[in-house]
């Protein structure tokens, strides 16, 4: 594997394997609720357990990546991510389930900062959005396949069918570990030849990054609110089958994957801030409209728009975060790429409690209201010319 561009696709495949587990969890929840009689809040508590550990340690993994590149850590993370989720079907004790999903969350946290930093290093300066889009596409495909694989496996083998999730984890663990030395060398060589050492002399822009973090975290809550309750919403509000609910979850993730692939490329051409703002302006009315219809066909069409809008901003936010913190790519990636998911998981139990007490429709209304916050803050993000010098600005536009 000599072409550096190939490493982006390898890391994208690793991202697919990692996020496969995150996509599988919400699809597994309805089966756990039925088998173990968990409440919505308890089910959301599993989402919290999977993400609380990730939120705590992911910035630490990002700082480790900034100090020294450790590609082998991605392989270990992939293995832990798949192992933790694979054993959930063998456990009935809630505490044991929490520990299992926390192990999975730890592995996911170990993978993201190192991988995103590596993608940045092997991408051309003017095509970083495209590079992150390819990488993010893999993650979104993983999210889309997670519900399909877990549902088919559970329906075929019972809850113990979750063991199937270990297979892609092992395969990608071996593939990444085999290329770990080459990945490290490729990142170092490409950084030297592309002039990225000059970028590292720039000052980190902490205030713009703080604003971006608010947007990232707001999107995370909205994403996980929809991610966690979408299948249940289709079953309990729109009165569809569990299979149909998980199918809609996969459609949601699939649309998101396609949107992510376009998001970075559009941002490279038109600007990161413009794409982020456009995405949120499209997202806001769509969520409200979803809560107003009981027609399954109309709801499906609206869901397509939501999936597109919610993920269009994903890659631009990751690259913009790396631009704001050029000396801390790992930390920036850990926040914008990793915490962009896990922070929403922390809020999920609150939404789950709301759903228990007031219904899923009320929870979706709150998710729609929360989306207003990142939409407003997105307008406050500095323009490229206010943050970067003329050389960088020319490469971004």
Automatic annotation (TrEMBL):
SUPFAM superfamilies named among the record's database cross-references: MFS general substrate transporter (SSF103473)
Keyword Transmembrane among record annotations: yes
Pfam families linked to this entry: MFS_1
UniProt GO cellular component terms: plasma membrane
Location(s) in or outside the cell: Cell membrane
Gene3D superfamilies assigned to the protein according to its UniProt record, in alphabetical order: MFS general substrate transporter like domains
Membrane topology, as annotated: Multi-pass membrane protein
Domain Major facilitator superfamily (MFS) profile: 7-386
GO MF: transmembrane transporter activity
CDD domains (alphabetical): MFS_FsR
Origin superkingdom: Bacteria
Keywords: Membrane, Transmembrane, Transmembrane helix, Transport
Protein name in UniProt: FSR family fosmidomycin resistance protein-like MFS transporter
């Amino acid at each position: 594997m000599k072409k550096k561009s190939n490493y982006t696709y390898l890391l994208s495949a690793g991202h697919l394997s990692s996020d496969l587990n995150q996509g599988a969890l919400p699809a597994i929840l309805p089966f756990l609720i039925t088998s173990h009689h968990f409440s919505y809040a308890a089910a959301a508590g599993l989402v919290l357990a999977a993400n609380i550990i990730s939120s705590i340690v992911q910035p630490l993994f990002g700082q480790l990546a900034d100090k020294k590149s450790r590609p082998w850590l991605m392989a270990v993370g992939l293995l832990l991510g798949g192992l933790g989720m694979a054993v959930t079907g063998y456990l009935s004790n809630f505490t044991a389930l929490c520990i299992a999903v926390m192990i999975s969350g730890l592995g996911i946290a170990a993978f993201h900062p190192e991988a995103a930093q590596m993608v940045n290093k092997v991408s051309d300066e003017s095509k970083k959005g495209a590079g992150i889009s390819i990488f993010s596409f893999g993650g979104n495909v993983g999210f889309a396949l997670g519900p399909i694989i877990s549902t088919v496996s559970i329906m075929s083998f019972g809850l113990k069918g979750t063991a199937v999730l270990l297979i892609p984890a092992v395969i990608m663990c071996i593939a990444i570990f085999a290329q770990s030395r080459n990945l490290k060398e490729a990142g170092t060589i490409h950084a030297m030849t592309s002039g990225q050492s000059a970028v590292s002399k720039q000052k980190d822009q902490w205030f713009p990054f703080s604003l971006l973090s608010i947007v990232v975290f707001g999107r995370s809550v909205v994403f996980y609110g929809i991610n966690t309750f979408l299948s249940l919403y289709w079953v309990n509000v729109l009165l569809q089958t569990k299979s149909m609910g998980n199918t809609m979850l996969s459609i949601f993730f699939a649309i998101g994957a396609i949107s992510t692939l376009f998001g970075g490329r559009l941002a490279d051409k038109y600007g990161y801030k413009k794409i982020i703002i456009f995405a949120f302006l499209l997202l806001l009315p769509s969520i409200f409209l979803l809560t107003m219809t009981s027609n399954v066909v109309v709801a499906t069409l609206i869901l397509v728009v939501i999936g597109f809008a919610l993920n269009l901003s994903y890659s631009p936010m990751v690259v913009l975060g790396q631009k704001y913190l050029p000396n801390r790519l790992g930390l920036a990636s850990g926040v914008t790429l990793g915490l962009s998911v896990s922070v929403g998981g922390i809020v999920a139990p609150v939404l789950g409690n709301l759903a228990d007490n007031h219904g899923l429709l009320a929870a979706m209304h709150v998710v729609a209201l929360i989306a207003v916050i990142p939409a407003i803050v997105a307008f406050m993000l500095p323009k490229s010319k206010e943050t970067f010098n003329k050389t960088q600005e020319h490469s971004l536009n």
